[in-house]
Amino acid sequence: MSARIQFILLLDAPLKIAVSLTQMGRKMNKYCTIRYLLLLASLTGFMNLVYLTFLADLRGTLELYTMQRSSSSVLRRQIASIQVDADIKAATGPSLSYLELLNLDLKDLVQRYLASSQTIAKQYELNNLQEEPQEEQVLVNHFYLPRCLPVPFLLIMVHSNPVNFMDRESIRLSWGRGDNPVNQGSWTSPERSWKTVFLVGKTNSSKLNNLLRQEAQVYKDIVIGDFLDTYRNLSLKTLLGLQWTSHHCKPKYILKTDDDCYVNVLSLVQWLQEYHVTNGSRPLYAGNIQRDMEVVRDKTNRYYVSVMDINRHKYPPYASGGGYVFSASLLPRLLAASQEVPIIPVEDACFGLYMQHIGIKPLHNSKILPYVFCDGAKTSLNERPICHLRDPLVLHGIRDILQIQTHYNVLLMTFLPTICSYVDNQSFSKNFQQSC
């Protein structure tokens, strides 16, 4: 082969390689679009998820075997060992056995809830429809008054209607009791303990009053007042709670809320403990603060207050009644103020008057009732992404079995916060106001 031919062949080889590379580049450019890259990333993520799930299942086999033998005790040990996933060094995260145990406990709570709804709840509904007039009776009986030992760090006073048995039952089965298995773990301690009591008045039905006394005797978490349970007597209900707490319980802090409100109690006691460590000597009165609220003078309005009771056009700032927390050390002064300040039928404004009388200014907390004044018919709580229920300390508009479901979901989102990391960044989630 001549030198000329060899030289042409030497030039031709790189040329062919260059053409091949160009053609390959064109093909690669076709498949390197954002669409194909996203598809590849999704496939890779799915394969990783399958691998992590398989690995977690291997690690949790022994625990899955033992959970049927003693779900409650194992659950307590599991939750006590769970840490926020940001602190978990292993890539697998919490074992599947933890979620399985939590699910078992949820099923047990739901079954107990359904059993109650098919038994005593039917009697409450029936007696509510067949009220019978009778002479007023004194219902207070020390035999079934709540017990407050050991003394809790936080006392939760829940305003409840006598007929709302299932609301009280759902609270007992979820956030209301610190001894529920789902509320046990490394975050619980005497410094973060809590107790829930329900404040109710009497009714015009002797059968319903009798059911209420039986419930109080069984659960020992109900304080019954000697007044009719009506809206305009809500201030008397709050005063009943202050009097009972002053005589029978000595907590550090008190939360007043309603039976249609959900309390993120684990986050609340943590916030209160941090406040107590840094500002324990400073009296606390915190909630969603209402300002420049006008006094209603229309006698047909449920919020009507006479000039004789309050001679001003606007109320002083006060915390909304769905949920406010205050220092229990203020009880003696608040009870003294109740003897000097007229009792008005607007419960939260009345309590605000007591606080103003003793010189305590309210502290706004945006995590207490954050949505109640901004959600309308088009943006109700039910329309919100579930991850919006994780951070608030008190939520209004949650009743019955939704208390149990919400508490379960909040626990998951609290201990596995990355669950909500995707939702928080989505445009549909940002369309909702986080607070008002």
UniProtKB/TrEMBL annotation:
E.C. no: 2.4.1.-
Organism classification: Eukaryota, Metazoa, Cnidaria, Anthozoa, Hexacorallia
The species this protein was found in: Pocillopora damicornis (Cauliflower coral)
Regions crossing the membrane: 36-56
GO biological process: protein O-linked glycosylation
InterPro entries, sorted: Glyco_trans_31
Entry keyword set: Glycoprotein, Glycosyltransferase, Golgi apparatus, Membrane, Signal-anchor, Transferase, Transmembrane, Transmembrane helix
Protein name (database record): Hexosyltransferase
Domain of life: Eukaryota
GO CC annotations on file: Golgi membrane
